[in-house]
Write a structure and sequence with these properties.
elongated, mainly alpha
C-alpha cells in the first residue's frame, strides 16, 4: 500500500512539471537513474500528449 502511494506521488510531481527532476529525486530519496527507469514511459506519454495538443492549436 505505501509503495503505491509513493508511486502515485512521484507520478503527480512529474506530471505537474513545475519541479526540476533533481528536486524530485531528492524529495524521494532516490537517484535520477531510478526515476528514469521507473517513470520514463509516463514522461514520454505526457510529452507526446503535450506536443499533440500544441500541434492542434498551431494547425487550427
Amino acid at each position: 500500500m505505501l509503495y503505491s502511494i509513493r508511486h502515485y506521488y512521484t507520478n503527480m510531481m512529474i506530471k505537474k512539471g513545475n519541479l526540476p527532476m533533481i528536486v524530485i529525486t531528492q524529495k524521494m530519496g532516490t537517484s535520477l537513474e531510478m526515476i528514469d527507469n521507473y517513470y520514463a514511459d509516463n514522461m514520454v506519454e505526457d510529452f507526446a500528449e503535450t506536443l499533440s495538443k500544441k500541434s492542434r492549436t498551431f494547425i487550427s
